[in-house]
Amino acid sequence: MKPLLLLLLSCCLLACQVDSKSQTDAPAAAAAFKTGAEQPELYLPLLKGKRVGVLVNQTSLIGQQHLVDELLRHGVDVVSIFAPEHGFRGDHDAGAKVSSGTDSKTGLPLLSLYGASKKPSAEQMQQLDIIIFDIQDVGVRYYTYISSMHYVMEAAAEHGVAMLILDRPNPNGAYIDGPVLDLNFRSFVGMHPIPLLHGMTVGELALMIKGEHWIAAAEQLKLTVIPMQAYQHAMPYALPVKPSPNLPNAQAIALYPSLGFFEATPLSVGRGTPFPFQVIGYDKFGLGNFQFMPVSTPGAALTPPLMDKALLGEDLRRVKAAGLDLSYLLRWHALFTAHNAVFFSSPSFMDKLAGTDKLRLQIEQGLSEASIRAGWQTELQQFKRQRQPYLLYP
């Protein structure tokens, strides 16, 4: 495969222009941390005289200002705003259809990528010269912002539109863990053969998607990544704004890789409470003695599981959460088995979340966490080697 051409100048961290595969040439400057968006001097020149589209949401901030507002203030010709799951303002429920329309503040066309179509149309792309992706991800494969990025990259490649990624931290960037996706289980909650926790930023992942030809016409894509300044994968990072309605804080984000699987079970993980993805509970029997009741709330208005029922279970708001912990799944599955109850109420969705049916089958067979984890190691090591050329940070 051709070596990747990636221009990364030391200290100033000039925008990296990508043609195939690459790796950063120099460490980040010993300066204050900055996201890609917080370095407009590196990308505004790339937008001069261009018709610009943006794939953004409520996390696309430069300080307290939204990226779109800043681009308009600098005279950038923003043509359209593309909205992912949860919408441009981040106020749509998980799984709720996002409608196209007009942004009330800017008057710009608002085009949904989480409704009838998840990929920009040819007509939409023909109005653009370049499209910007600037969204805060959480580093978990089944979180769908990277799937939207995939489809926009592919549309850009197919229609000769340049792609600009403004990189942001991965709050789970210290971990590489979980099953690598089997493409037989590919879906919008898992599109790439990467582990559940891949330990990459969206910029690095975009380089890998292009370099490994995971999109159509990958070789035609003109991809530019604006790297962060003074960033490392294991660096703690408190998100300034919640990335989606049900990930309100650092604890929820840290537990999300472990608790997301419960979406394929009858249990509640706190949607419809003040502490989503920080509790586990059930109405008929439970582990622990914590009581809570999900109700219809903004961000969980689409009938959260076990709504208006008193639930008993575990309060995880103060546990030390890190990486992927299978013990929650294994304990609750054992409890359901003891009560002759069905644990995986949606086995097909579980397999999509896991990227394989092996995890579900191993749990149903009663395998230990150590045995399950042992089965991942060869593929994880292969992935670590495969991703190495695309890493921008230590």
TrEMBL record:
Protein name: DUF1343 domain-containing protein
Keywords of this entry: Signal
Signal listed as a keyword: yes
Transmembrane segments: none
Residues of the Peptidoglycan beta-N-acetylmuramidase NamZ C-terminal domain: 255-393
Record's signal peptide: 1-15
InterPro entries per record: NamZ, NamZ_C, NamZ_N
Domain Peptidoglycan beta-N-acetylmuramidase NamZ N-terminal: 52-250
